[in-house]
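Table 4 source record.
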Amino acid sequence: MSLRITDDPAADELLSSNPLALLIGMLLDQQVAMETAFAGPLKIQERVGSMDAATLAHEEPDDFAATFSQSPAVHRYPGSMAGRVQALCAALEEDWGGDAENLWTRDDPDGATVLKRLKALPGFGEQKAKIFLALLGKQCGFDGAGWREASAPYGEDGSFRSVADITSPESLTRVREHKRAAKAAAKEAKA
């Protein structure tokens, strides 16, 4: 697997090789550009010296938040997002042996099971869980039965709805266009 989400080869390599980094990138993907969110795990690893759930969960909270605030910031809301990352890492440590990949590999789960597991994580609602499941299925080799249905509409083949569909600068542009059109339609429907 070789993801191309951030346009930064080092950040993409970390996302491709470390399931926790990919999960944290998805967690950070709100109220910032996708590339910024998914580049966040590399900044965390460089500043803390680790991309390990137990290590991150047990960092002193104020120090961890300070690493998010260093320029360039990991997220536009460094304090709250640092807390969310620590809560996510603590849940992974407690429930999944500290291994993010266990969410989609333990006991050979189907798509609906992985979706349920993701939704149980701190910071993962329905939409974020479905997008991450689609990313696992489309780009990370997850082939549990029913993953496309469980991640609908994000699992749809040939769509350009989310980070799950970004494989190049061109696909990033198509995803942005789709999001812009969806926002415009929502705004028009509201008016």
